[in-house]
C-alpha cells in the first residue's frame, strides 16, 4: 500500500510541476519530459510490468493536463516503459551511463512514436522543424535531469539498499 501511495504522489507532484512550473522556467515550449524519465527509470529498474503501469498512469495524466489528443501520450509512454523494461535484467542498475543512454534512446523513441500516431490519425507532421525546435532541446533537458531522477526511482524501488 505504501508503494502505491509513493508512486501516486510522485506522479501527481511531477505532473503538477511539469504542467505549471516548467513552462514558466523553460522558453519556446520546450521543456524536459520528467514523466518520461520516470517511466524509463521505473522500467529499467523494476521491469516491463512496472514500466507499462507507470507509463500508463503518467501518460493519462499528461494527456489530461495537455489538452491534446487523448491517448497520444498514454500509448507512447506505455510503449516506452515496456521497451525500457525489457532491458531490466540485462543492465547494471547502478551505472551512471545507463540513465543517459536510456533516456537518449527513449526520448527519440517516444517522439517518433507520437509523430507516427499523429500521422496515422491523419495529421500533418513536419519532421525537420520538430527535430530542430522540439526534440533536440527536449533531449538536452532530459539528459540533464535523468541522473538525479534515476537515483530517486532507484531509492523508491530498492529502498535503503542503495550503494548509489
TrEMBL record:
Keyword Repressor carried by entry: no
Keyword Transmembrane: yes
Topological relation to the membrane, as annotated: Multi-pass membrane protein
Compartmental location: Cell membrane
A Gene Ontology biological process term: regulation of cell shape
Transmembrane segments: 97-123, 135-154
One protein family per Pfam: MreD
Alphabetically ordered keywords of this record: Cell membrane, Cell shape, Membrane, Transmembrane, Transmembrane helix
Any GO CC annotation of this UniProt entry: plasma membrane
Superkingdom of the source species: Bacteria
Similarity comment text for this entry: Belongs to the MreD family.
Protein name (database record): Rod shape-determining protein, subunit D
Provenance organism: uncultured Sporomusa sp
Amino acid at each position: 500500500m505504501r508503494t502505491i501511495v509513493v508512486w501516486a504522489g510522485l506522479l501527481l507532484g511531477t505532473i503538477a510541476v511539469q504542467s505549471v512550473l516548467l513552462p514558466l522556467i523553460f522558453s519556446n515550449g520546450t521543456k524536459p519530459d520528467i514523466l518520461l524519465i520516470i517511466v524509463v527509470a521505473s522500467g529499467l529498474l523494476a521491469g516491463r510490468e512496472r514500466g507499462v503501469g507507470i507509463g500508463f498512469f503518467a501518460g493519462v495524466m499528461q494527456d489530461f493536463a495537455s489538452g491534446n489528443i487523448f491517448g497520444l501520450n498514454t500509448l507512447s509512454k506505455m510503449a516506452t516503459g515496456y521497451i525500457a523494461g525489457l532491458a531490466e535484467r540485462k543492465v547494471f542498475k547502478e551505472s551512471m551511463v545507463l540513465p543517459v543512454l536510456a533516456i537518449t534512446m527513449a526520448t527519440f523513441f517516444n517522439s517518433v512514436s507520437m509523430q507516427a500516431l499523429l500521422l496515422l490519425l491523419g495529421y500533418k507532421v513536419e519532421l525537420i522543424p520538430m527535430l530542430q525546435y522540439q526534440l533536440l532541446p527536449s533531449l538536452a533537458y532530459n539528459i540533464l535531469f535523468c541522473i538525479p531522477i534515476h537515483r530517486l526511482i532507484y531509492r523508491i524501488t530498492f529502498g535503503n539498499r542503495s550503494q548509489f
